[in-house]
Amino acid sequence: MSTKGRVLVAMSGGIDSSVAAVMLHEEGYEVIGMTMKTWDYATAGGSKKETGCCSLDSINDARNIAVQLGFPHYIVDIREEFGDYVIDHFNKEYLDGRTPNPCVLCNTHIKWDALLRRADKMDCDFIATGHYANIRKENGRYVISKGKDENKDQSYALWGISQQSLSRTMFPLGHLTKEYIRSLATQKGFTDLVKKSESYEICFVPDNDYRGFLKRRNPTLEDSVRGGEFVLEDGTVVGEHEGYPFYTIGQRKGLGITLGYPVFVSEIQKDTNRVVLSKEEGLFRNGMWVDQLVMGKYASLKNNTIETITKIRYNDDGSPALIEQIGDEMRVIFTTPVKAIAPGQAAVFYEGNDVVAGGWIKKSFIHEN
Predict the structure, then answer these.
(1) Of the residues 124, 242, 356, 365, which has the fewest C-beta atoms closer than 10 A?
(2) pLDDT mean over 262-284
(3) Residue 15: its pLDDT value, please?
(4) 163 phi, psi to nearest 5 deg
(5) Cβ of 177: how many Cβ atoms within 10 Å?
(6) Sequence ranges of the chain with CATH classification 3.40.50.620
């Protein structure tokens, strides 16, 4: 066994996780590769050819890397636990009038748990992934921070990983750029990986049609929610919609309604099957509550208000905000109003490059100064 230790590497078959495995192997770690089968069309449906991290091609790509470098590779079927937790949660959130973020949920509640359980069975000291983020230990806590490549930083999706899991986690690519990773893969002869296109779709909704997914998952849903009311902020009824689960906060296109000026979805009212429309300015809020917190840099922020940059979605640049932990929730007051705060999305709080904490957006509000 290597003196550096044994590491279980999550290998999706893509360039990032493959290069992470190569780097650790060359650094002298005893590497074991593992590819997780999380879903298939038999359970998810869809109109496109199977692609992405769970396709046969991706699994074979991961295995080929392991064979070339001479380390073991295993395929683990976690479709049942993935479906029970991630897909069921995705479905329920939309039926509750919220906008879910399944990739964050999968990372923090499925993939890490699955990896660590297998790591223990294989006597692995660490687990590793190809995420662009960094980990360090400070004041007795493991702190996630942004990756060097700002365009590829994935710290937003990792806030939910527990301190115990972080203590055994490695991110070999955190201090590198995507350009460097492509160059390294080319040098190693992995040209097929360099040519691979990256998918940004939800893996179990590969046609990007979440409405179709919901209809397939809930055969009677469309009939039960069709015909609800579009209303303005003052309650004025302006039309009928196809059902509240089929809309998201901030949506403009596909509403099927004309009022003579642009309107956006500003609120979803599940109990009355109403979808509230407003002009663009009606999307802005300067406060929100975030629950199901996972604390990062600090163990607690109770009775303590700090300044952060707060991100409310993956591709958000972040906005200055004061945060205060009250009980098990975070009260967030933005310096200036932000657009389209969607309940169900993740909120992540940064101090510099460090993840202070994260949680799920419960609701937004207008804070009067």
Answers:
(1) 365
(2) 97
(3) 94
(4) -60, -40
(5) 16
(6) 6-195
